[in-house]
């Protein structure tokens, strides 16, 4: 092909002339940069390939990382865990065996992504999130996310979402808000872990987490300031009361003093809030994760103890008594997973008392069918959204809408041992969730979410609204 033919084929003279004219019209201070940007925008982005690799998550366990290439850039995403190793084999395995199971699942997912997923997505427009997610789901349909694993699907879906935002030249949270069909931006109230127990710590505390919600902060930045000051005062109080060995941290970065009762933990946190000077401006939440200590129809509050007193084997109705008492004695505004994952009856009984937010985690599994049932039966009144249980960005947005339509609270949640991907921060803002749960102000995989929210708030300036006291009802217009 001659030079002339090449120029004509690509209409280069006309395109360059148009770009030069646009730079002149705009009186661009740096015309070369302007022309480069103008011409780049004239070429639509298309996905050219998807590559996956194994990385390590916050537990040092294998996880899937994805790089989605377009003709313009590369976009990276990862999702916690490997997805596949649920079930008896993984549950009964020790840590090293579990790691091997995860590694096999991740290796399988990497192969499928590099081969089938990449082939299916090549040529697609990264702005078309719903079409991309449908293509991912179609590959896996018959196997109910078993072949790819929900986490691997999610990593591809998130990488595509990042590519879509880049192509639109808007921040990720803004692109997500567009996908949700909303316009305003709401900064969530952080549910900051300060004490860990349950399966997340080696202490005697049966419940998994005690969290603080700085609902009285004027903005997200102040909320994190209040949260981290309280966290550090709590450390001092624990050191004074129980000694240095009790200030070790648990799975989400919360402290894990060797306490065994919920009220002992709440008292410590209240003392820390008072010492920090935030009385009345910080509320409390607990994640009971009761499925982990449900035995038959009873709840074993000493499930981690080798010397059981036998006095702490509670019925579901006893648990309701305990929760009612706690709500009357403390500024406790949210209880997550208060009963076994299939105890619909008692969850409903507690929710109906209207003592506080009752948030469904294992009960709902972020599953639209379970959410539908819970909405109809009023089994709980808030969704704990773990997006790697859902599988794709589009499906995650759908379940947020489902919960919002029912006037539920929505708590976007990390996973324990998450990766350093901060996507859920943008999701919480774009979908106006109102609440985000990402662990303590400690450990990189937790801070990456909170720090991203600090950046978003700064970027939004006066357009950003902190959910604050509206943490349960936040919504975008
Ligand atoms: P999980 O816990 O990832 O271990 O389920 C997360 C949470 O519920 O906080």
UniProtKB/TrEMBL annotation:
Pathway: Carbohydrate degradation; glycolysis; pyruvate from D-glyceraldehyde 3-phosphate: step 4/5. CDD domains: DD_AtENO3-like, enolase. Residues 47-176 form the Enolase N-terminal domain. Keywords: Glycolysis, Lyase, Magnesium, Metal-binding. InterPro entries: Enolase (IPR000941), Enolase-like_C_sf (IPR036849), Enolase-like_N (IPR029017), Enolase_C (IPR020810), Enolase_CS (IPR020809), Enolase_N (IPR020811). PROSITE patterns: ENOLASE. One of its GO terms (molecular function) is phosphopyruvate hydratase activity. Its cofactor is Mg(2+). Mg(2+) binds at residues 287, 336, 361. HAMAP family: Enolase (MF_00318). This is phosphopyruvate hydratase. It comes from Digitaria exilis.
């Amino acid at each position: 092909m001659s030079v002339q033919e090449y120029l004509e084929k690509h209409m280069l003279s006309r395109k360059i002339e148009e770009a030069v004219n646009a730079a002149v019209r705009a009186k661009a201070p740096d015309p070369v940069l302007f022309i480069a940007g103008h011409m780049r925008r004239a070429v639509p982005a298309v996905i050219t390939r998807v590559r996956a690799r194994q990385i390590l998550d916050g537990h040092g366990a294998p996880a899937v990382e994805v790089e989605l290439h377009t003709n313009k850039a590369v976009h990276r995403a990862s999702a916690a865990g490997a997805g596949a190793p649920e079930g008896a084999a993984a549950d009964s395995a020790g840590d090293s065996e579990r790691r091997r199971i995860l590694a096999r699942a991740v290796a399988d997912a990497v192969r499928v992504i590099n081969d089938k997923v990449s082939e299916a997505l090549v040529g697609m427009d990264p702005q078309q999130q719903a079409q991309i997610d449908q293509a991912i789901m179609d590959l896996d349909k018959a196997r109910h996310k078993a072949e790819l694993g929900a986490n691997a699907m999610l990593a591809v879906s998130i990488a595509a979402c990042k590519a879509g935002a880049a192509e639109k030249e808007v921040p990720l949270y803004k692109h997500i808000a567009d996908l949700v069909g909303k316009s305003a931006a709401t900064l969530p109230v952080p549910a900051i872990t300060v004490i860990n127990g349950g399966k997340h710590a080696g202490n005697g505390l049966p419940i998994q987490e005690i969290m603080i919600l700085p609902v009285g902060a004027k903005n997200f930045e102040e909320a994190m300031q209040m949260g981290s000051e309280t966290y550090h005062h709590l450390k001092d109080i624990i050191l004074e009361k129980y000694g240095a060995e009790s200030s070790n941290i648990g799975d989400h970065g919360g402290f894990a003093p060797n306490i065994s009762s919920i009220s002992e933990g709440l008292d410590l946190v209240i003392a820390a809030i008072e010492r920090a000077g935030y009385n009345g401006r910080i509320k409390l939440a607990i994640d009971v994760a009761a499925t982990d200590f449900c035995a038959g129809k009873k709840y074993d509050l000493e499930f981690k103890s080798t010397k059981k007193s036998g006095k702490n084997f509670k019925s579901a109705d006893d648990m309701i008594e305990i929760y009612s008492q706690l709500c009357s004695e403390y500024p406790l505004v949210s209880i997550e997973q208060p009963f076994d994952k299939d105890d619909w009856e008692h969850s409903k009984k507690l929710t109906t008392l209207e003592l506080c937010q009752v948030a469904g985690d294992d009960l709902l599994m972020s599953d639209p069918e379970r959410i539908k049932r819970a909405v109809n039966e009023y089994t709980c009144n808030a969704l704990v959204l773990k997006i790697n249980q859902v599988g794709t960005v589009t499906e995650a947005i759908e379940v947020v809408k489902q919960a919002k339509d029912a006037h539920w609270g929505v708590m976007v949640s990390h996973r324990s041992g998450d990766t350093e991907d901060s996507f859920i921060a943008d999701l919480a803002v774009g979908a106006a969730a109102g609440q985000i749960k990402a662990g303590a102000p400690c450990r990189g995989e937790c801070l990456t979410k909170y720090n991203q929210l600090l950046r978003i708030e700064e970027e939004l300036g006066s357009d950003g609204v902190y959910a604050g006291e509206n943490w349960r009802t936040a919504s975008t217009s």
